[in-house]
Specification:
Elements: E1 3-4, E2 27-31, H1 32-42, E3 47-50, H2 57-65, E4 69-72, H3 76-90, E5 94-98, H4 101-117, E6 121-127, H5 130-134, H6 145-149, E7 155-158, H7 165-177, E8 183-189, H8 190-194, E9 196-198, H9 199-204, H10 220-231, E10 236-240, H11 242-246, H12 250-260, E11 264-266, H13 286-292, E12 295-299, E13 327-332, E14 346-349, H14 352-361, H15 372-394, H16 402-415, E15 420-424, H17 427-435, E16 444-446, H18 456-467, E17 471-476, H19 477-481, H20 487-492, E18 497-503, H21 532-537, E19 541-545, H22 548-561, E20 565-570, H23 587-592
Parallel strand pairs: 3-4, 3-5, 5-6, 6-8, 7-8, 10-11, 10-12, 12-13, 13-14, 15-16, 15-17, 17-18, 18-20, 19-20
Antiparallel strand pairs: 1-2, 2-9
Helix pairs in contact: 1-7, 3-4, 3-18, 12-14, 16-17, 16-22
The structure holds adenosine-5'-diphosphate (ADP), ligand TPW and magnesium ion.
The site of magnesium ion has 6 residues, from helix 19.
Length: 593
């Protein structure tokens, strides 16, 4: 807090008190910088991800000086992804702080990603002078940021006066975490930071948000409808999505699954809500249970492309557009989600914690577990598929392929169930998701709803900072390239991150050639690239691993030492498939069908 001279301060200091010439008492004031910091602190926000520059350089310094963690990145997009996943992991908005125009735009992709994935995040950007921007007079980094952000996030606000900083942050926090969580933009023009106001009034203007994400209880008749439908089921299935992981009501979800005896599937980031090795886990029989199930309970999962929109062969529909005919209970906080793709017989609108608690009350001692035939049929498929997978994993081809490398990762994650697992790529993503079992909630974080490349290193930084646990990142070589320079950030903050690059020389595989013979094919990278050297450049540990044994040793050492480590896992360049497992969405592949 600065003490600034008030009018009359220059009067002689010797003048007797009370005389007309007496100086007024210096008034304690507070400026915009400090108000922003106090507002964040008051609301329990202790970490900011960002990148300095005009007009927020001093804000980054002052945040640090005031004891907040200011994690400074090499590119705003990665800071934004870090903020988005911090929001997912903590249920409090992750904060990303950027400079105006280009920095803002760099952060915007992550803000939209947060919104699309229902993660609470606030992008705070400095901006240039309104008067100049609105007349297009060519200010430094001129851009109407608020207007641009609005259609791309859940809510957007601008604060013009220091006395509104408290309100601005309070509105941003509420918008980010209440209802369906999402990304919020908060525009802070440069002039705001230098504004001062009387300190006591400034402090009084701040708002500590009470109950930012209020419980939303489901209606009793909706609960009864859901339970009735479930009781009628012969082949019920529970499908857990990342909303269920976000909700942090792990014990009740486990109780619901176990008391009902219903088999369950986990969407990618819900893996580990119950261990993948749980006897009711049906993941290894996914392609059997989806078309066969008659009643499906969706908990925090949307019937979007990741679930084939509830339609087509995946769900037993007669053609690719046909509804599979399943009856659904859909537990979601958004009242608009039901019927977005197929009819929802029993929508249950409320927060997942409250909804699951209400469902549990209806699952008493008289509850009939699913018919034995259903459970046995699933077990049969599951055992067959697990045995087949074990056979594949046991092979030791040279060069390594995805399976033999991921067999190692699978063991390491099993031995370190508290470690965070970051995952992106195409084959590197799909194989990891199906091969590497998860044992605890919110440990697996990945490309999410958009299947976005580039989240990797931002996620690693946030996961390490927020959870303090070791982080393992399984990265496609292409995927890594989107955020690779943040290896420096990982080294700078000395974070316990072990990056494994599944290096197959390119996007999907490394074997394409330019038919004209002129250039490298668009999907192919420098052959035999040594990504481990990138880590060494910044003082971390780099390892080139050509066998599972080398990979295992390097990963064990990384977890043990907690040193930033990058392992270049050399994978057979012919091993991958085009688009990993989503070949059907590739127009040329679809045409061939
Ligand atoms: P996945 O990709 O894992 O299938 P989605 O992102 O499609 O998951 O779905 C997550 C759903 O969870 C969204 O529809 C969102 O509204 C919902 N959701 C998020 N948090 C909560 C919560 N606390 N309570 C209820 N629903 C939630
Ligand atoms: C922001 C398109 C999907 S997957 C992928 C790209 C470029 C890379 C796949 O290669 P990688 O994995 O990572 O080496 P692997 O194991 O199959 O070889 N830009 C963005 N997001 C997406 N999804 C793409 C492009 C894409
Ligand atoms: Mg690759």
């Amino acid at each position: 807090m600065a003490t600034v001279p008030q009018p009359g301060f220059n009067a002689p200091a010797t003048a007797p008190a009370g005389s007309p010439a007496a100086p007024a008492q210096p008034q304690e004031t507070i400026d915009g910088f400090q108000l922003v910091i106090e507002a964040l602190k008051l609301n329990g926000i202790d970490t900011v991800f960002g990148l300095p520059g005009i007009p927020i350089t001093d804000l980054t310094r002052k945040l640090q000086a005031e004891g907040l963690r200011m994690i400074s990145f090499r590119h705003e997009q990665n800071a934004g992804y870090a903020a988005s996943i911090a929001g997912f992991l903590t249920k409090t908005p992750g904060i990303c702080l950027t400079v105006s125009a280009p920095g803002f735009l760099n952060g915007l992709t992550a803000l939209t990603h947060a919104t699309v994935n229902c993660f609470p995040m606030i992008l705070i950007s400095g901006s240039s002078e309104r008067e100049i921007v609105d007349l297009s007079q060519g200010d430094y980094e001129e851009m109407d940021q608020l207007a641009i952000a609005k259609p791309l996030c859940k809510a957007a606000f601008r604060v013009l006066n220091a006395e509104d900083i408290g309100v601005g942050l309070a509105r941003a926090i509420r918008a980010a975490v209440s209802g369906r969580p999402g990304g919020v933009y908060l525009d802070l023009p440069a002039k705001l930071f230098a504004q001062t106001m009387e300190a006591a009034a400034g402090k009084a203007s701040l708002i500590k948000v009470v109950d930012a994400a209020p419980r939303q209880l489901p209606a009793p008749d909706a609960v009864a409808r859901a339970l009735d439908l479930l009781k009628s089921a012969k082949k019920p299935l529970i499908l857990l999505g990342k909303g269920a992981a976000y909700a942090q009501c792990d014990a009740d979800i486990k109780a619901l699954v176990e008391k009902t005896g219903i088999p369950y599937l986990c969407m990618s980031m819900a893996k580990g809500l119950l261990p993948d090795t749980h006897e009711q886990a049906a993941g290894a029989a996914r392609s059997y249970v989806l078309p066969e199930a008659d009643v499906v309970v969706l908990i925090g999962a949307r019937l979007n492309w990741l679930l084939s929109h509830g339609k087509g062969k995946t769900w037993g529909g007669k053609d690719h557009k046909a509804w599979g005919g399943q009856q659904y209970v859909q537990v979601d906080i958004s009242p608009q989600e039901a019927d977005s793709n197929v009819p929802i017989a029993a929508p249950l609108v409320g927060d997942i914690g409250s909804c699951v608690a209400e469902l549990l009350k209806g699952v008493g001692s008289g509850w009939n577990k699913p018919p034995k035939e259903w459970i046995d049929a699933i077990a049969e498929r599951k055992n067959k598929n697990v045995a087949k997978m074990a056979e594949t994993l046991a092979k030791d081809p040279s060069p390594m392929n995805f399976h033999s490398a991921l067999n190692v990762v699978r063991d390491i994650v099993k031995a370190n169930p508290d470690a965070m697992l970051v995952n992106e790529g195409a084959n590197a993503l799909d194989f990891t998701r199906s091969i590497v079992d998860m044992y605890k909630p919110r440990k697996r974080i990945d490309v999410g709803t958009w299947g976005i490349m580039g989240v990797g290193m931002g996620y690693c930084v946030a996961a390490a900072v927020v959870t303090k646990q070791p982080v393992i990142a399984i990265e496609g070589d292409s995927a890594f390239g989107f955020s690779g320079m943040e290896v420096e950030t990982i080294c700078r903050y000395n974070l316990p991150v072990c990056i494994v690059i599944m290096n197959n020389n390119g996007v999907y595989k490394g074997t394409d050639v330019d038919p004209t013979g002129r250039d490298p094919a668009p999907t192919v990278f420098v052959k035999g690239a040594r990504y481990d050297k990138v880590m060494e450049a910044f003082g971390g540990v780099g390892v080139n691993a050509t066998t599972p044994a080398e990979l295992r040793k390097a990963m064990e050492e990384a977890i043990q030492s907690r040193k930033p480590t990058l392992i270049n896992a050399v994978i057979d360049e012919t091993a991958g498939t085009e688009s990993g497992r989503i070949t059907s969405l590739n127009p040329s592949a679809a045409k061939k069908k």
